Amino acid sequence: MEEIVDGYFLAAQAKGIALKTVWKYRADLNKLKEFCGEIQLGLARGYSETHLYRYRQWLEKKGYSAKTIQGALVVAKQVFKWAWRQGILRDYRLAAATFPRAKAGPQPCFTSEQADQLIQVAVGEEKAAIALMAYAGLRIGEVEQLQWNDIHCRDGQPAMIHVRRGGSNGATKDKEDRFVPVHPKVADLLGRVRDDKAPIFRDITERRLLQRLKELCGDCGFENPTQYKLHSFRHHFASLCANSHVPHRKALAWLGHSSSEMLDLYYHLHDDDSWQAMQALAGDAAGGESAPENPAEAEDEDESDEGNSRATGGSTIEKTLQAPEVRELVGALGGLTERVRAPRPALSSGI
């Protein structure tokens, strides 16, 4: 059993998967080894569909989250499918085993005020790195591998970010390039753009920046500062897009997704048309009373309840807090399309 698990891990590494994925695979495979050791299952050919369901129960008793359990089960099935395809096992006995899709649990999300505080107290390269995650939606891996020639300029100013690396094998996580317009806060922190292939950040790594983020959140006095992750900045960007009424398709393209549960959540929370339709329905039922033209006028002062599961210290998505960002974002990004297959002729790399 251990030989097959180890063989699968080496085969996965040989594909050039990202380092973060390597760590995840190693953790999931160690769980599988531990389970098989506890039930004294030494031969892979004895692992049946029943064992997979028992493995799920074992993971639940260990207290792992639904998403973690789902990932571990997927990896377990991949191990045995790989062994079957390699001719190590005569059959693949787990094909019929299915599990309901796990829903992501509540995730922390920065407000714009918090994101701006963090940029202010950060030092050196940290400022631009945080701004790129908070106001361009870049993943930390994409920030780490961003080069100067990925920044296209217009009239001598940074105008578009060409995101083409950050995942495994020198590509993005979704394997497609994307273009994200440059927010003014990002442009200010990038400064003069160089015309070369040198990396923009020399001292930024995921582990180091994550540690610094938790320290900075504590310095800023955020409640429960250790809850925040680097990915919380992408949640902020999704929130900002929803508040700015950026078309859903455009926001998906900027974030590098074909679909996104995270983005859908924020857009549903700010679906003014849906809210107005319900108020109109309520008005008809009450004898034709009209609904307020602007949903914000009817919101209770304790509107932060809708975001308590995602952020502390206030609403996850605050209209009054984000309103200045709406004008700034729309003014800066208006007229720029979200995804193209090749750099525009009007843009030049560097100055």
Describe the largest sheet.
Answer: 4 strands, antiparallel
| Multimeric status of the protein | single chain
The name of the CATH topology of the largest domain is hpI Integrase, Chain A
Q: What radius of gyration results from the CA coordinates?
A: 24 Å
CATH class of the largest domain: Mainly Alpha
Order of helices and strands: HHHHHHHEEEHHHHHHHE
Task: Spell out the blueprint of helices and strands.
Elements: H1 2-14, H2 19-38, H3 49-61, H4 66-85, H5 112-121, H6 125-136, H7 140-144, E1 151-154, E2 157-163, E3 178-181, H8 184-190, H9 206-219, H10 232-243, H11 248-255, H12 261-269, H13 272-285, H14 319-333, E4 348-349
Antiparallel strand pairs: 1-2, 1-4, 2-3
Helix pairs in contact: 1-2, 1-4, 2-4, 3-4, 5-6, 6-8, 6-10, 10-12
Question: What would you say this structure looks like, in words?
Answer:
- This protein is mainly alpha-helical and 351 residues long.
- The chain has helices at residues 2-14, 19-38, 49-61, 66-85, 112-121, 125-136, 140-144, 184-190, 206-219, 232-243, 248-255, 261-269, 272-285, 319-333; strands spanning 151-154, 157-163, 178-181, 348-349.
- It contains 14 helices and 4 strands.
- The longest helix is centred in the first third of the chain and has 20 residues, at 19-38.
- The model is unreliable at 294-323 and 334-351 (pLDDT under 50).
In short:
By secondary structure, the chain is mainly alpha-helical. It has helices at residues 2-14, 19-38, 49-61, 66-85, 112-121, 125-136, 140-144, 184-190, 206-219, 232-243, 248-255, 261-269, 272-285, 319-333, and strands at residues 151-154, 157-163, 178-181, 348-349.
